[in-house]
Amino acid sequence: MDEIITEDLDDEIDEEEQEEIVLATVTAVSANGLRIRLDGEEEAGEKYYKANAGQRYAVNDRVKVKKNSGTYIVEYVVGNPGARFPIPSGGSDGQVLTKDGATNYAVKWASLPTVHSVPAGGSQNQVLAKNSSSDYDVKWSDLPHGLPTGGSQNQVLAKNSATNYDVKWLSLEDTHGIPSGGTTGQYLKKSSNTNYAVEWGSAPATDRLTSSAKHVIYNGSALYADYSSSLGASNYYWNGCYISGDMRLGVSAYSGALGFFGATPIRKISTITTSSTLSALIQALKNYGLF
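Below the sequence we write its predicted structure tokens.
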């Protein structure tokens, strides 16, 4: 008799402690929670319920909910194992998950090159360059048409040959620029018959002008000449010459007389003698434009 009473009491306690399982369907998902329609109801309520934050939810998911102080908490999605956002089967060592279409959660196993990753290998300072016209086909390569190594301060890039992108570092004087060096008062002059061959040179150490001077240079304090052609020949006349101070002609070995009167200079009047009359002297001066 006692045993029967005990069994009846145990059954009554189990029925009271047994939890009621409540299922629902998700009708909306937001950052604030889930709207659900409880099984047996025709429409969903307006309230958003909190849910298990470690699960992903989508509209039409079947979920298990639990009553809690007059409200509900969504515990988890109910359905076939692995039916929601599954990791695909298969795959091999080193493969990764990559997208398998625009559909949400559609993924597949793929090797790294297939997902357009950086190729293996390469060395310091190399860059990625196209290996072919195929999409994502790249390789490690030296800088394409980049700056050559080496060079020193103030050098510039210059063509090394007619080949495209073939350049090298050169000093300015090597690229027909102004040569380095030089001192105050020096000037540029040809160093050879080669094009662009110039060098810094001092002015001639003399201030005399001769009939063989071609280039006349004034350095601020003295007048110099480069003796390489005729100055004073029939094609080289002085014109508008102004001298502040003494003008010296015929100095040292370059002695001579100063000529006037016409294209053929005359150094002195030879048509007048000591016995000439005054009228003859006046006429001679008129002939030379001096009277």
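The first strand starts at residue 22 and ends at 30.
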